[in-house]
## 1
Amino acid sequence: MRYPLVGLCLVFSLGIITLAETKIPLFVFCLLTFLFLTFSIIFIKQSTKFSILLLGAVFFLGATLLRNSQILSNCHIAKLIPYKSDSVYLIGVIDNDPAYRGKKVSFIIKVEELKINENWIKTSGEVLVKVFSAEGGSALPGKKNDFTYGDRLFLSGNLYRPFSFSKGEFNYRNYLKHQGIYLILSLKKGSIVKQLGKNISNPIKFFAFQMRHKMKGVIVKNLSPFSTGILNAIILGERQNLPAYVRDILVKAGTVHIIAISGLHLGIVAFIILLTLKIIKIPRRPRYILTILLLIFYCLLTGANAPVVRSTVMAMTLLFSYFLKREVNIYNSLSLAALIILAANPWQLFEISFQLSFLSVFFIVWLAPKIKSLFPEKLNKIPWIGFLISVFSVSFAAWLGLLPLIAYYFRVLSPITIIANMIIVPYMTIIVASGFTLALIGMLFSPLAPILGASCELFIIILFKINSLLIAIPGAYFELPRISFIYVLLYYALFILFFNFFNNLAANHHP
Amino acid sequence: MFNLTPEERRVILFLMSVALLGLGINFTSKVNSRIKKFVRVDNYITKININQASLQDLLGTQAISPKLAKNILAYRNRKGAFRDIEELKEIKGIGDYRYEKLKDLFVVE
């Protein structure tokens, strides 16, 4: 097999999926993994036996990992307060970059101590804190409470389990559970918030968040609130201030992926970094190492969610292969990224962003060259037409690959997506590059920022107008009724069968 | 099936063994963790000494409005100092309900 990591990743995912809902105890999975692992060590020299035993071990390791993540420690806050509580007191440290939306603030707090029945208990776990009026307890009237990553806080408020409301196939309680959050602390007027100092566990993360705030400051200062919401989503991954109607338009046009930091963004960022380092005459090897480090920093800066981690791991493997002057295999690097993300959190497999991110890359890499080869070679060689064929092949491949999932999750079928992405994806290069230039130049030399800001504003308005115009075309998108997941699986099965048949046919014609 | 070199096989087996061992340790520590009650939390962490609190300290919590903070400070200046936390009830704007919410926030020292 040319792609060993693909096989391991698929079997690992299969272990997570098939055993997610079973009630089999963890030690059974541990034992099975141990047995398969032991036998693969014994048969290490026999290729076929070793491969089968290894696949078995990987399958059960996936299941073990998932089951272990379902088990909470006895000191976990969700075990101490299982459903809902009246006012509780707790001490903890902010573990992410607080998100401000109007007067509301939300952040994740790592709980250290909890007061129950007049006793303080050492506890663990994470809680989503929602402060409903950040101005309520501010030190100066009219100014907001300033929460930052690493703040140690003493809080009192009401703890409750997240509501299990659903929008389409999205379930809020499950979404939070997949991130290890089982409780929400609501801080309304009259709740106690006291800052007890700082406890920064990760200084690089702290520095990344500070940089993020500075970049955001430049964007907010130089763009209108409308464009700020869009550019913050595009380059900083901050989507809470993105107007709902903009998101709706992007979903209908099938270009919503532009507000999720992905390979497209990472590619442009890596290109900017490599070019800058080349201009300042950094030698080749240190240049690649520095780029890798800066990409990791950018990943942290944007909150390190699945698509950005996937893109960062893939970019890293690519840069490492250049560094070592070795050929890279894109399927193996994609599988490596999936394995890293799933090992850290197996629940990611059930997240929409994870599925869309990996499937889109897979279909682009696998299908786009096949679509491109359907066009005559003469046309592919003409520069502009060749470029158009490439863009069309990528857009069509991604559309075909994601069509059933988009229909299942968003209940939309958008034929316009193919044309929209042919325009938007190349255009995004301008937006990301100008957005970064604005944020970085704005931090270093602020007098230039308004000029760059004006250009960015224009680019973003054009982006919005293109999307709005495209969905206004009759038949651009259709709203669909709810479809069963069986149809999604059926689609992929038929798709693979069709391409295998097509490949065999082509092979018979050209022996 | 997999065309792995002996080194690659060893690396994969090593990584999986380490992961399995780590999972086992993590699981055991979670199952055997015990609730340690009566963690000592100093008063200065969770409570504000009402006789030394500034306007800033009082407003630093979500529980007190600017007007109520000024009333508390006016009362303290008038009386010299609080002798008992129940004196809070004598301040305009603090009824029984709010007192119950505030009493855990302050200490008289």
Note: Residues 4-70 of chain A form one domain.
## 2
Amino acid sequence: MDSHSTDWRAAALSGPRPGPAWFERQWVMPALLLAVGYYLAARLGFAFTLQPHPISTLWPPNALLLAALLLAPARAWWWLLAAALPAHLLAELQSGVPSAMVLAWFASNCSEALIGAALVRAFVPGRLRLDSFRNAGVFLLCGALAAPLLSSFLDAALVKLIGWGHGEYLELVRMRVFANVLAELTVAPLILTWAAFGLAGLRRAPPRRYLEAVALFAGLLAASLVAFDLPLVDANTAPALFYAPLPFLLWAAVRLGAVGTASALALVVVVTIWGAVNGLGPFSGGTPQETARDMQLFLTAVAVPMLLLAVVLEERGRATRDAREQRLQLTHLSRVAMLGELSGGIAHELNQPLTAILSNAQAAQRFLASPEVDREELAEILRDIIAADQRAGEVIRRLRALFVRGETQFQPLDANELVREALGIVHGDLITRAVEVVPQLAAGLPALAGDRVELQQVMLNLILNACEAMSGAEPGSRSLTVRSRTAEGGVQVSFIDRGPGFPAGQHEKLFEPFYTTKPQGLGLGLSISRSIVLAHGGRLWGSATPGRGASFHIYLPARGAA
Amino acid sequence: MRGKGRFEVQACVSVVDDDALVLRSLGRLLRSAGFTVNTYPSPQAFLAQGAGDTPGCVVLDLSMPGLSGLDLQKALASSPDPRPVVFISARGDVPSSVAAMKAGAVDFLTKPFDQEQLLAAVHAAIERDRSARIAREERSSIGERVATLTPREREVLSRVVDGRLNKQIAAELGTAEKTVKVHRARMMRKMGVDSLAGLVRAWTVIRQTGAQLP
């Protein structure tokens, strides 16, 4: 089935090609595949027929047709239905059904697919993806319930009209509905989810995920076989065993998403029906009608909540991922904005070694032009050039680490080293802004766990804020104390400036997004800094003595405690 | 580039920069151009050690931790040995360069600069130092000579440079014209000048130093 679905994807993605208006070559291959699939599905449907009087338990061709329509644009629908006709005739005429009945069934099959596809499309335009609760709900109500229900009246009426069927009209309707609903629940989600997942999804999955899927499906197969196929237990304990596949289905819903759940459900359905068809398992023993009905009701009752659960979990997981992605983007953006503020200091930090390199090289040229060359002096010059070059490289390396947008990576960190690195990055700014740093770094601090770049971003933000706050002060009085100490089993790093501080009662407002006191500020620095520290299990807060300076403190838990 | 004149040999360039690599490289470059070089890792070190007796200039980094280049320039200007300053800065911001030039800097170079720029600025600074020293020496020697004059000779001096005739001076001082002639001749000899033009020039120098005469 999955190979179909990927071809569908390819067909849907490729653009229209030249040819007569009514003829679209891009649908030839999908239509052929649909025909083959339809034929095989019909054979499978025949195989899943209870004897002696043929009662179909699962009729997959309709569901296959519906899934095909849901994946294709409406203008291709007639192509697809036309392609299914030869397959339908080929499959049905082998079974000795009258020609009129064969054609009538094709009409009712097509009507089911068309009703379902049109209803679903009315609510969800475009290719249907079972990736949200709404889409899944629309599919279940329109595709899996309304379409089989409405078409079954037509189907049963045609059967009565042609005189092929036995039994009451409503009983015929009920049997058709149950068989078709189960097929829609089993086959259509399988195709729709695999069409969305595709080969790309398989390639993306890590090897761990493959192992997990193998374990899950092996366990599910074993549990389903025990529960529904093996005559191991007597009929009285059998209902308890109905729940045996449930843990595996839940596992699939939680870990493997909609595509894994749809696949797992298909496995359970096939195993269960196979058991019933062969007279095994808890559903055999009654009349064929009872067997089919009980089994279909049971499987439907399992499939609906499992599918919805898987879709909801996947949707929620995606929302969480989106939120994290947005946080990462915002963090990165504010970091880049901060680097813009640093640019003057960065120029300073690069110009120093560049000056040293140029002057050394030009001095060397002059020494070489003199009659006596001091080799010792030249060696020293080269040593200094190398040192200056390495220093410039280090400046660039540190900056690049801040520019790169990456996933949050937790690693063991030393708080003092972080402080020193941050001070190294702003070294040029501190000098040009005439800010004197007083480091008071305690020894023997516990190790931290965190993202180096993000925590550096927090420290840089606090240092730059402090510099900014003191820009109005006398150059001699611009002093920033950076203090680290062990606190509450973690580390507290404080940044204490001698600026004007901030008014009492403002200390929480500072952390609100878009609150800023700087003319060019975005007002995101402290807000993002706090979210970074919170994500590390720590706290970030500020305190101030108005007129005498502000202090900002980061508390981060020790490595094991986070 | 100018050739090595007599001043390069005698001139000493003091380089003040907190960055050890930059400091060493500038020292080498200036030495390679024939200067005597003293290097100082901080303004404080410069103030503590002094620039030495050899005339010359100071190459001064603008932004250093603690005392800044502008602070040192101020301290230097009011010292007895006010050497000209060439500023260098890794961050050429306009306000501090304006402040530096207003305070009398010879040049303001933005790092990284070419040797031509630095050497040209240093030459200009040394030239300025040389002429300033000559002017200072002249002033002090004239001042010394003025100090040897008697009060009466000073009175005569101020009136001679005002353009008075001996007869007018004698009338003002209430003495004989002959006596004024004697005072005037002695005053001219003590001042080391042999013409009225030379006396007026010396007088101008004295006026510049703000010396007071009766």
Note: The CA atoms of residues 109 and 118 of chain B lie 7 Å apart.
## 3
Amino acid sequence: MTRLLVLLAIGLSAATATAGFAATLSVSSWHLWAGRQTLTKSVTPCTVTGAAADTFVDQASPTSPNSGGATIDALADSGSQRWAFLRFDLSTCSIPPTGGADSATLRLYMTKAPARTFTLTLARVLGAWSTTLTWNGAQSLSYAAATATAPSGTTAGWVTFTVTGDVDQFIHGLTTNNGWAVTASGSTQNANKDLIQFASSSAAANKPQLVVDYEK
Amino acid sequence: MTVLSKTLGFALAVAAATAAFAAAASLAVGARSLSAGNAPVTSCGIATLSATRTVDNSGTVTKVTVAGIPVACNGETLSLTLVDSNGAVLASVSAPISGTTAAFSALGSVSAPSLAGYRFAVMGA
């Protein structure tokens, strides 16, 4: 009988103690903070007309700069290649670094189309350059992987390249804005037939444009 | 009988003492005790959070970085929700906080033009 009572007492104690600790565990002090941020989008796109700097380099004249003319050229022919260079000033758009590009398009007006369609390739330039750039100087620059390509077509008109990712990086300051190089590739005939010319920033009309939809 | 009485008395005393302790513990989790708000619940000191995003060339959001996280929030959980202009959820991610910024990159395919805002939640003990 004595043993029974002792066991009963211990069992009762254990049962109540267990219940007590289980209840204590359920008490905690979690907290929650919640907030929101609303983005402001551009009502109209920012259009930068005319590049801050543009030029082209010519393999046939490797030490001569070619800026200031009405055109910037691209030519695929071996031995006489031409590469066009452009850099836009985005500061006129007043996009804060906390914003970003929703979409961005580079527009070039082709004043002279080739006889056959060439592939135009746009690549970000990774080093600084100026309008005195020469073919030899362009060989010492580095270039990112192609941002975009576009067919030239065989008739004059606007050629567009999507450059959203590049412009977004420029806005955020993730990469330096050294602009882009435009090159041509394809089946060549001769320089006269294959030459592609775009209106430059010195042209009277149809200057290069960068069109940016953005968030502030 | 004496032994029986002593044993019974001891057992009842132990049981009563334990029961009293348990009752006190039970009271601490009763609805009325919690509503009294005796236990202070504090946040980790967030005033506001802000996010920036990067996009790829197709305009798809590739990364969102949340800034302004107090050091005191380290170890807590940050939830980030991307919403469109109607408040519909475009993507939702969460991760433990480590540092004063948090970067999220597995966001599916959210297009930057459709992104209209962020919702933040920080939960911790």
Note: The CA atoms of residues 129 and 178 of chain A lie 7 Å apart.
## 4
Amino acid sequence: MDDASIDPDATGDDGDLPEAAGRRLGSGSFSSGLTVPDFAACLQMGLAPVALVQGFCVMQWGWYGQGSPYSRGMTPYAFSGPSVPRGVYSESYQCPHGGYSYSNEHRVWGQNYQQPWVESAWAEGFTSSYTRMVEEATEVGAHGIIGVVDTTRHLADMNVTEFHMLGTAVVVRGVAAPSGATPWTTYLAGQRLAKLVEAGYMPVSVVASLASVRVWAYCVTEMLMEGRPLSAYGAGGYLPVAEVEQLSRAHIAARSLAREHVRSQLGHDTLQGAAIVANTQSLAQGDEVIECALRGTRVRRFKDFDPLPAPRPTVRLS
Amino acid sequence: MSDPGWAQAPTGSDLAAEMRLAAASLGKPAHDAPSRAVTSDLSVDESLLLHSIGWEAVDVVFGASVVSIPPFVWTWGSGEITAASEAHNLAVRSAAKHLGAQCTEVRGHGVVGVHVEIEVQRHHVDVELTGTAVRPVKGKDTNHPFVSDLSARDFTLLHNAGWGPVGLAFGASFVYAPRRSAGTAMRQSSQNVELTNFTEAMYAAREAGMEHMQRSALDMGAQGIVAVRVSEGPMWFANHAIGFTAWGTAVRLEAQAHQYLSPQVVLPLDDAVVEFDVQSLR
């Protein structure tokens, strides 16, 4: 394989598998996370399962805390130093009311901005667990990893997230062992993988990204989201039904950023079976953190498309 | 590692040969690579079906809108809660517009498989739409992309029947359930009795919501709406307010006449034990 979407150097030296893992992988029996139908399909495709491979990474979320390299201090608008990456997405909103005539709490300025320090920390956790899984597969001489499942979960009462990757390492029968190449990976297995290959696509790697956008609401957003009057005493009335532009733009930006992060890993390949999970954490007064994770399988066309015959509608008598 | 014997398995099947070819290809440049990476949330089946009618996926696209609901609209009253209905309809319209704009940007002709997520809160309505922009393989650009929540499979079927989607038809209505008089409430407190105020409110919300939806379809020049879904019930933050939303894909006939598909009746002879046989794919 000529390239891998995820940085294989993220965890340091190769060959640092635990000794027990090395013994287990060399034990002579195979293990697999495939269901029986997927296992049957795998054999039919000329793939031989070698081992169930896994990678873990437990990350402490310390980016907002004291001493964190990601901390930006007390003010949301100041960056703590030149080492903290700035995002490509940022837009500001100015109070249209001449804020001095209201109260000191009137939010005269708001901002949406990308949080690359959050994104890179997530990517570090994901990439480390991915690379460790791939390392195990490389150790057993696998050509690829199929049926990849990745999960992230928060460990109870700790500011800690666990990244876990799991998949079945396989060898393609009749193909020479790869020398120094990174195994290909895919979320697909069984008949879905068979159909992908039939359609002329070969999986290259799983790809994933997280985009994070922080919203500091300005006065209009706050009033619209909280149902507040223009002044503290209700004078000036309430705003009518209206689109909360700052938030709408932030939601679209988070999703678009996630897509662009993934696109930057694709080269000229295709992302198949994209799965999008968005999470909005409402803070207060219209402030929000929007996070969007996008994952899928990067696939590459290896032959011309064989057009399917026109599908024939059927009615099943069962 | 010892070989459990599958090295002797038939390797002459086309699928295994395809797999070997595919694995060997990774060291080479991509075959017929697109100039821009394509992203898609369609399944393999859906991509193949789209291709069978000469369409292809272009990009995953998004639309989102947050619309405010003024304060005090949920306090007890009578009739339709116009501000809430307006906010809901505006949020969907605006999110669909954003989705359409992204689709046009990537030169898609429409968006299929749109996943609709709606959340109604006391002070705002949040709408998020996600789908895959698609286009005919040799189609020209269009400035009027459609938005459809039909799956690529249903879109293919619709296309083969001579119909085409024109947009997402949507309607929502929120209605107060009128307060019962104190005497009525007291009298009914120990009875098994229909709460006609709630039933009537549901009917009122239903009528207004369906009307909004049909009007939005007619405004798009559609002849009908397929795959309509509805959701209804009291608001979690205001039990005396009933909400009704309905949405579906507005369609119109694009062929000269409807194409009868004449589905073939099949009696599958599946063996329950053999859950999968890859040969059936060919």
Note: Chain A has one domain: 19-301.
